[in-house]
User: Fold these one by one.
Assistant:
Number 1:
Amino acid sequence: MEDYSMILTDDIQYIGVNDHEIDLFESQFTVPQGIAYNSYVILDEKIAVMDTVDKHFTEEWLSNLKKVLDGKKPDYLVIHHMECDHSGSIAKFVAEYPETTLVASAKALTMLQRFHPEFTHSEDQKIAVKEGDTLNLGKHELTFIMAPMVHWPEVMFSYESCDKVLFSADAFGAFGANDAEYDEIDPICLKEARRYYIGIVGKYGRQVQAVMKKVLNYDIQAICALHGPILKPDLQEYIDNYNCWSTGGVDSEGVLICYTSVYGHTEKAVHKLKEKLGAKGQEVEIFDLARCDISFPVAEAFSYGKVVLATTTYNADIFPYMRTFLEWLKERNFANRKIGLIENGSWAPAAAKVMKGLLEGTPNTICETVVTLPSILTPEADAQMDALIEELLAD
Ligand code: FEO
C-alpha cells in the first residue's frame, strides 16, 4: 500500500494515528487490520488543525502535532464530527493550546459542552460555522459544507480550495489502519470501505446523496476522511462506489448465501446450492451467520443483487443469528434485491414464513419458490432448489 505517512501536500500534513489495539470498533465491529484516526494540519499564515483523535492516542497525536508545528502555535481547531473517536483529544489539546479558536457547526459546539461539561473555553474562542461559510488561513481557504446525519447530526465537511482537498468526516472512510498490509488487487481496501459504509453510515444513504450533490461541484484532488487512507488515486472509482452504495445499487455479480445450521444439515444443503449455482456459472459467497462478525455478511448483502437466506425453525421462530441479521439489513434500508428462502424444520417448519414476515414492507422481491428441508435435503427439496435457482436467475 502507498505510504501515506505524514505529507499530503507541502502545506497539509497528516498527524493521525493507527490503532491496532482496539477489540471492537464502536464496541461492535471487528477490525482485523485495525483502524486509523485521521487528523491533519494546514500550515499557512494561520494554522488550522483538522480534528483530534481517540483519547487512547492523545499523547501520540500531540507528539505528531508538535513535530509538524515545530514550535508554532495553532490558530484554529476545526471539528468536523463530535463522535468520541475524533473528539476524544479536544480537552487535552485545548489545555495545551488554550489560545486556539474552535471552529465547528453550532450543533457540534453544543455536543462538545455535553460531552465535556467541565470545558471552559470562552465563547469568543468558538466559531459556529454554517453552510458556505469560509475560513481564510492565508493562501488556503476552507469552505464549510454541512453534512447532517453523515453520520451524526452535527457533521460537516470542509473543502480547501488551494490544494483542492475535501475533508469528508466519516464519508469515504474505511476500516483498516493506514499502515496495514492490503491485498494488491484491492489497494484502496474496497471491501473494508464498503463494510465501513454499510455498517456505520449505511442507514443514511439519502443524506449521503444530498451532500454528494453539493461536494461534487468542487474540483477535488484528494479526499481526507476521518478513517482509512487518503484518497488521491482512483478518486472517481471511489466516488462511483459511494454513489452506488448510497443509492442501494449492486456492485457484485453472483449470489450471496447466508445461513445458520444447528447440526449441519442446512449447511450441507446450502453447499449443494452453491455447487448447483456454480455449475450455472454463478459466483457464490457463503456466510455461516453464527460464525462470523455479522457486519461482513451485512455489507456483502448490500453488494449482491441476489441473496439466499437459509435457516432452521427454532422455537416456532427462526434461529437467532438469522433474526439479528435481518434486523441489521432492515435497519439499513435493505432494498432492490431478489431473495430466495430455504427453511429447515423437523416437525413444523415455519422459518420461511417468519423470514417473509420480517422482510414484509421492504422493497425486495422474494422468490415464490421456497425450499423446505424436512431435516435433510430430500429429493423433493432438491427439486425445489432447482426451481428456486431458476427463479433466482431469471431476469
Ligand atoms: Fe469515526 Fe462517526 O465517527
Note: DSSP finds twelve helices and 19 strands in the chain.
Number 2:
Amino acid sequence: MSSQKNDSFKTQLGLILAAAGSAIGLGNLWGFPYKAGENGGSVFIAIYLFFALAVGLPLMISEFIIGKHSSNNSSVRMFYKMPTNDETRPKKFAIIGILGTIASLLIATFYAVIAGWSIDYFLTGITQGYSQFAEGTEMSAAYFNALITDFGRSGIYAVTFILLAIVITFFGINDGIEKASKILMPALFIILIILLINGFMSGGFNETLDFLFTPRLTYLDGTDLNVGKTAIAAMSQAFFSLSLGLSAMITYASYMKKDTKVIGVSFKIVLFDTIVAFLAGFAVFPILFSLGGDPASGPGLVFISLTVSFATIPFGRILGIFTFLLLFIAALTSIVSMIETIVSAIIGGTKLPRKPTVIIVGVVIILGSILNQPALGIAIPFLQGLADNLIDQLDKLTMNFVIPIVTLLIAIFVGFRMKKELVFAEFRSYKVATLFYAYLRYVIPLLVFIVFISGILAL
Ligand code: TRP
C-alpha cells in the first residue's frame, strides 16, 4: 500500500520549517549577496524587497491555496480535479505542474554541483583550515578553479549531496522531510546568528549598512547604474529565492492539514526567507569589507573572496567552517523540496510506490549533475561547449522564462478560474478578500508580465 494519502505534515511548525527550508537556500546565501554586490547595492535591495513582499507574498498565498484544495499530491494531476468557477475541469492548467516539475529537475542538477563545492570547503576548513588562501584572491581563485574542474572531487561531493537528500525524501513527508527540517532549520538559524554576531563586531559593519541601504544610482566603481537590468535581476532573484513557480510550495501545501491558515503560513515563510537573505548580507559583507574585498566579485564571492578573509580574520577557520556548513544545510533542505515535487508528480501520475520512485529520481539527478560538472568539457572535448555554460544556461532558462511564465499562470488560475469562494474563504474580512482578488487578477499578472518581457529584452 502506498501511504501517500495518509502522509502529511503533522504540525504547522513542521510545514513552515520545511517550506522555509525550501525557500532559504543557495539563492539567499550565495545568490543574494553576490547579485546585490554586482548590481550596486541599495537599488537592487529596494526592488528585491518590493517584489518579495508585494508580489511574492500574494503568489505564495496562491500556491498554498492551490495545494490546499488538491485531491492529489501531484502538482500535475491535481489540476484535473481542482474546483473551478464554472465547474469544468481546468486540465490545461496542469501545465503549471508540468513546467514546475521539469524545471525542478533541471535546477536540482546544477544546484547539487554548487552545494557539493560547499562540502569541499567545509572539509578543507576542518582538515587544513584556510591559511593557504592568505596570499589573496589569486591563490583562492586557483583553488576554486582546481576544484570545479576536478571531475572526481567535484563529482563525488555532488553525488554525496544528492544521496543525502534522497535519504530524507525516501522516508516521506512526516518521517523524512518534517523531521529533517525540524533539526536542520534550527541548526541553520543558530549558525546564521553566530556569523551575524561576528558581522556586527567586525570592522566592516558600517560599510555594510552603507552599501545595503544608502540610496545611490551607481555601481560600486562609480559608473551609472543600469536600473532596468538591476530591476530584472532583483525581481527574478526574489521569485527564485521564495521557490515560486516551480511547484515546490504547491506540493508541500498539498500535504498540509486542510484547516491550515494559508495566509499566516505564507506570510511567515516570506518573512523568514527575506530576513535570511538580509542576514546573509550582514554575515558576508562585513567579513569582506573588513579586508577591503570587492562585493562585486560575482558568483565566486563566497567561495573565492570570503575564503581569503577566513585566512586572516580572528576565528576565521571556525567562521569559515560554519559558513560552508550553513550553505550546505540550506541547499540540502532546498533540493529536498525539488526532489519531493518530482517524486509526488510521478507517484500521482503512475501510482508507483514512493521508495523506488525516489531512487529513480535520485539516479536521474545524479546523471544530470554529471552533465553540469565544469570538468566534463575538459574530459570530453566534444561536450565542452555544453558543459562550460550549462549551469549558466539552466539558471537563465529557469530564472528568466519558466518562473515568470508559471507564476503568471498561477495568478491567472487562482484569480480567474479557481472557485472564487475558496480564495475568499481564506480571509476574515470580505473587503480585504475583494481587494486581494482584484490585485491578484489585474496587478500581479501585469507586474509579472513586465518582468518577463524585460527579462527577454535584457538577454
Ligand atoms: N529558493 C531556493 C533558494 O533560494 C531555490 C529554489 C528555487 C527552489 N526554486 C525552488 C528550491 C524550488 C526548491 C524548490 O536557493
Note: The radius of gyration is 21 Å.
